[in-house]
Amino acid sequence: MKMRVSAVQYHLHTIHSFEEFAAQVEHYVKVAQEFEAEFVLFPELFTTQLMSIGDENGKALPIEALPSYTEAYRSLFQGLAKQTGMHLIGGTHITSEEGKLYNTAHLFYPDGRIGEQKKLHITPTEVKEWNMGAGDSLQVFDTDKGRIAILVCYDVEFPEIVRMARARGADVLFAPSCTDDRHGFHRVRYTCHARTIENQIYVVTTGTVGALPTVDFMRGNFGQAAVITPNDVPFPPKGILVEGEINGDMVVTADLDLELLNLVREKGSVTTWRDRRTDLYTDWS
Q1: CA 214, CA 135: separation in Å to the nearest integer?
Q2: Whole-prediction pTM value?
Q3: Catalytic residue among 38, 118, 119, 243
Q4: What whole-number distance in Å separates Cα of residue 169 and Cα of residue 136?
Q5: 2 is catalytic
Q6: PROSITE patterns recorded for this chain (predicted)?
């Protein structure tokens, strides 16, 4: 089984309407469609671009305004997924439940279904500045190409949750991210590599690039998309199938061979998933 994936290095810049946002999203989706991608990953928090539309005084909208765009956001991605026949992982969008904000990843299936995964681990900035709530459960998603999971940025820095995803059968982890400097970017990137080695899975990650000069905490972005593999003989020596140019506005694409994962789990130079010492620590399966 093979899966072609594209990851979008989404360029944040000031816009003046939802229609501008929709046109930019559609552009990236069409680029991925031209490369015949089956899954397309957008970054975490890319819909904060909608805050730059501003109010009647030209001031950026507050984070609390983003849930008012949820219906339009979902309709846009749902329509594009149906139109193109691709699975669209619409990064994350801020949703609201019972007065609490959540950083929520969305999976849009070609048949119109929508899957959701709330961010599970919330950074100090998200708590202090945005009063963001944390999700309370891990989802895995069945697709006609295999089982996947979506963990958002900071989530991938916690090995336990990825162990759980792998134990539930996920072979591909999508990790949408948003980081504002090199330190944050490399924390996410290095831990993505660690998760592929520990669990013998693929990780597809990407981040926002560009800037929103009027939006607090979104003025700086440092991002790069990558498709990351285990470090073993069937794969590239550095565990990178493809990566974008840092902070460039682009889409990267690669093919994932799921049979290679089964091969290295059985006969790899190391067999990290099989060799877990579950007599000493938790067996998440």
Answers
A1: 29
A2: 0.97
A3: 119
A4: 20
A5: no
A6: CN_HYDROLASE, UPF0012
